[in-house]
User: Fold these one by one.
Assistant:
Number 1:
Amino acid sequence: GSAQPRNSIYLNSIAVGLERFGKNIIVGCMDSSLHCYTTKV
């Protein structure tokens, strides 16, 4: 196992695209939705 905690996200639809902009992660899904997550701590 890893000493650091792992994070996970749950999406309503299958992810079809993933892009990282700086400290943000943008996920595009099959239902035409976009989700933005930040990696800031």
Number 2:
Amino acid sequence: MKAFVYTSLVTLLVASDAAARALVDLDPHLSARGLLTKRAIACTNSSVRASATYTGSNTTSTDVRLRISNGGAGQSGLVGALAEAYIDYALAQGIANESFAVDWITGDTTDSIKYITSGDADIAITYNAQAEYRALNLSTAVRREYGFRDHFYLLGPANNTANLTSNDTVLDIFNKIVTTGDSGNGTRFLSRYDKSATNIKESLLFATIGQIPWALATSKWYHQYPQFPLQALRAASLLGEYTLSDRGTFLTLASQNSDLTDALVLYKRGEDTDPQDLLLNPASFLLGARVCEDNLAIAQGFMDWMVLPEGGKKVVSKYVQPGSTEVLYTRAPNCTSTPAACAGW
């Protein structure tokens, strides 16, 4: 009977460490390590194809031990720069005993959280606080760190059909885009329309001024273009449309095809001076709950390294596109010593 009770409890409750430890308290002959081993997550290949694989400076290993999902910072190359630097660090510090590789999986904020939920990615780089809190509350993610700051750019055509001025606030700009778009004067706004952090941000800005153009068939000026950041910015430039993008994407496109960025005017951008700036774009790193047991130390080590001044923060602060001196992103503030600087994160 006692064995039956224990077997039933294990079957029903082994999903939690607390349950396993409770069983050990009942019977000292049971092994907590043994019970917890039953629920250890085995390493499997991701069902999502990686966009790139990084191996560090001194290795060509194909043994992928860490998978990071993100959109814009992956396209800009920052994810690769972080991966390369961390591999070297992890080997030097003994976090990993053998050479390994890191995969970048392309995904916007919504995709990236989905991938850590399914176990297809280990770490998600995301840009929406409420989505991140939800992932933590659902135990999809087990840790959140402030990784770096990106900055939204409100860009548009040089002919400025919306009549934007340097004195306009962000909400003034969105009001003018709606008003001139509705008037039929040729103003158009390109939306990623893909549940990315950028799409969520512009939707919130439209909603703040009481507008929901995506729900109205009469909003012909609202151009739904569900593509990743670089592709969307290229389209906005070629079509002469206003759009919300970010500094990292803009500078990346400028390094690839300056004619496209030269055709755009930067009407408003986020700044670090005000942590509550509507166009500031904080990037969070979420550690997924389904990291396999063999790779957990490497994933946890990456999260630790990411917030070190001489670790991930240093990589962020020095990251530029080839041939450029403009840094794409800025360091995240220290939320412990300067909590006010993290307001809104």
